[in-house]
Each structure stands twice: as C-alpha cells, then as structure tokens.
C-alpha cells in the first residue's frame, strides 16, 4: 500500500465491476477512504446484483483499506447528493470524485428511440453533472478537490451506433472544462480519462465480422486495472497543477488528447455569401477537413 492519497476521501461511481472496481481498489491501496457506489444493475438498467458494491468494499477492507458501499443513483439530483452525503456522514469530508458510472443503449441513430437516448444521457451526462455539483460547494469551502470524469473516444472521435453515448461523453468533456475554469480559483481541478479496457461496457461491441472480432480480441487484452494509476494520480496532490485535460489510457500507453482549436481561417472583406462560401471558403479549407472516421480508424495501432 502506498500513501499518495492518505487521509483523502474519494467517491467512485459505478465501482462494482470493471474499470470502476479497479479504480476503487487502487484508491484504497493508495490510502484513500472510498465510497464504492454501484446500483448493481445490468448495462441495460435491469436486474443485476445489488451486492456488487459491498464485495468491492470487502476487497478493500481485506487489503487493509477503509471503504463503504452506496447504492444511490447518479442519474437524479437527490441520488447524487445522497452519494456525496454518504461520504460526509461516514468520513466527514470529500476530496475527489470519479464519475465512472455508465450504461449503454447502442442503436443506429435512425432506429434510436426516446428511452434509449434519455437513459444514456441521464446516467452519463446528467449523472456526471449531478455528482460534480453535489461535491462542488464542499470543494469550494475547503479550497481543494479533484474531479475525474470518464469520457470516450466514441465522443472524441466517433463510433457507429452510439449517438446517445457519444453525445453524452463529448458533453462530459465540455462539462469538465467548464468545471475546471469555474473552480480554478478554489484550487479545484477537473480532468477526463478516455479508457480503453475490456469491461461490461465494451462486452456489447459487435463481433459478427472478422474485423469486429479482431477489434474485440485487442480490447480483451486491455485490462481494466491499467486505467487505475491515472485516476489515482489525478486524485492526488501530485496533480495539483493538472486541470482541464483529456487523457486516454490504453494498456501501457498514455495519450494526451487534442481539444478543439481553429485549423484554418478565410476572410472576405465584403462579407460572405452562400455562393462565395461554396466557391472560395470551402475549397480553401477542404484540405483541413476531418475524414468521417471511427475511433478504431484513428487509433489503429496495436496496444503496447
């Protein structure tokens, strides 16, 4: 056990399995007191195992750490506040939040219904806002705190059949940057991790074609535990000057992801018309257009 988080209290949502479980275990091993939050439901929000969170708590305690289970929902204002209150009631403070809880309703955009859209937005984007907002005043008052949000290359780059998930995950990036800007004066930082790992979230990836099967085989080699060190670092005082960034973690590889900035600029002294845009502006910018690519098309080398 190291002591990089000694004395800190960390909430990890969706911590009953996969990446969340690994992050919670690593936080405990680093000396943090951990709120292990998980509803214990399936990726579709049904059934599941309500004992998931408690089993992770038992693992942390067996290893010599301190943790408590929580089963409130991140997808409601009251549920999110109850999760943060759990930390305050048990340990008297909150120092870091890992927004990891997630669900999936994969469907091609032209077939996606309202429930499939809203359920994913509610858990990922609304849930990240609700938990972050619930912790904000406590961070502000103590003039310290760290937010770690899970985003995805589905939002940063793109993927098929994930309009709801991609929109939520890119929204989280914008939310994280806004939090970083608004909370900087209080020494509170906010960063994103785009994880590559085999988990319940990725086990639904189609594998019908040889190409899809090859992609799944690569993902299965990426252990969820590889994400945890970056989360521990971002929660620690060693990351005191790191905020507003997006990191990708892929097996033993770390990436700093780009953020939107102007690529080209064209000027017309008399102002633009739709015709001059078609004749002058677009041809001038076309070489800088982004291709219609998916995440595996861009990050297409084998994991290290």
UniProtKB/TrEMBL annotation:
Residues 8-211 form the Ketoreductase domain. Belongs to the short-chain dehydrogenases/reductases (SDR) family. GO terms for molecular function: 2,3-dihydroxy-2,3-dihydro-phenylpropionate dehydrogenase activity. The lineage of its organism: Bacteria, Pseudomonadati, Pseudomonadota, Betaproteobacteria, Burkholderiales. PROSITE patterns: ADH_SHORT. InterPro entries: KR_dom (IPR057326), NAD(P)-bd_dom_sf (IPR036291), Peroxisomal_Beta-Oxidation (IPR051687), Sc_DH/Rdtase_CS (IPR020904), SDR_fam (IPR002347). This is 3-phenylpropionate-dihydrodiol/cinnamic acid-dihydrodiol dehydrogenase. It comes from Paraburkholderia caffeinitolerans. Its EC number is 1.3.1.87. Keywords: Oxidoreductase.
